[in-house]
Amino acid sequence: MRKLDPDLAHRLAAEYALGTLRGRARARFEAIARADADVDAIRRQWEAAFAPFTERVPEVEPPARVWTRIEERVTRPRGGWSSVGFWRSFGLLAGGVATVLFAAFLYLAGSPRGEPAVVAVLISPTNEARMTLTLQAPDTLRIHNVRPWKSVQDAGRALELWALPKEGAPRSLGLVANAPGDFVMRVPMDDARVQGVKAFALSSEPAGGSPTKQPSGPVLCQGMAGPVKKT
Amino acid sequence: MTDAAQQRLAELLSRTAMGDHAAFADLYGATRAKLFAVSLRIVRERALAEEALQDSFVSIWHHAADYARAKGAPTTWMAAIVRNRSLDLVRRTREFPDVDDSLAAQLVDESAAPARDAEAHDAAHALGRCLGELDPEQRQSIALAFFHGLTHSELAAHLGRPLGTVKTHVRRGLLKLRDCLMRAGHT
Predict the structure, then answer these.
(1) Quick one: closest CA in B to A225, which residue?
(2) What is A50-118 written as a DSSP string?
(3) Is the minimum CB–CB distance between A5 and chain B shorter than 8 Å?
């Protein structure tokens, strides 16, 4: 992608933050900002510059039903998948990621019984799909690591996979190799650790895993649990 | 909002990133009225503003971990999500946008008065003072675009000016604003 010169980046970021950059131009600028940390920093500067405007808007109380619906949507197991249309339009996710999600959705919708089911696609903070979890057999989770984390390797740290239940603390599923490719992990479907799981997350932990039995390092990627069909 | 309040929101966001529902509920409680108001000014319909707020908080739930990368104030990060969603939802053609020109004027006026809460209003003070340096038409265009999500064409219709003139006002206004804010050390 062509590098934006700083003046143009400022002009576009200012109109983006102001809201006058619209439609395709807006989507295009978002894509550039996601790919270019310098442009992203300029975008954030402009959003911060206008922040005092927001402080001055007199508050308006929303009706209680808004929260009821939010709660429904974040606790519904299928929420992450059934709202694909929303994510696609939202613009926070890279087009590529939306495509991956959509492909996974189609795959699940059309997959005959007995084939591996996609459990989750874990997305990085930069909106890249970095890891997929599929159910290879009823008691076997196949983990596909798209590419290793160099920062984790350089720091001599480890990757730990967590199951996030609807309520309560994350549960460790164990360490995952920081190498590209597929790995399998035995997790019986009746394993207490995956009951009522809403999402999965991968964190960077000291070698040997988190000393606190809870995620202690940064979350590298995470994703909603998809509908797992019993095979 | 004070630094302590922002710090508390940052903590709620990091707990939300780990799937903590109680923290998420507190986060909603602390920000809903401001964010609903931000959306309502852009979309102008309560039903649409409700939808924008709902979608935004579902997004915040899923993307709370991204906040750590954004580095700024939690309210800025959350308001950007709400604004983006509202701009997506807003009715495309509004011939006579129902707008209110008073907020920007208020911001400029108050910046001339001694800051009441220097710590929290430092940035607001700089923005207000810098807006004060703009031509009135530039200032009005920028405020209308920000508060009401008006496009260049809608601004032109509202102000009764040619489209090209309005685009130039916005562009030059933003350039001046940038120079002024840079001098003030705010961007």
Answers:
(1) B62
(2) HHHHHHHSPP-PPPHHHHHHHHHHHH-TTHHHHTHHHHHHHSSS-HHHHHHHHHHHHHHHHPPTTS-EE
(3) no
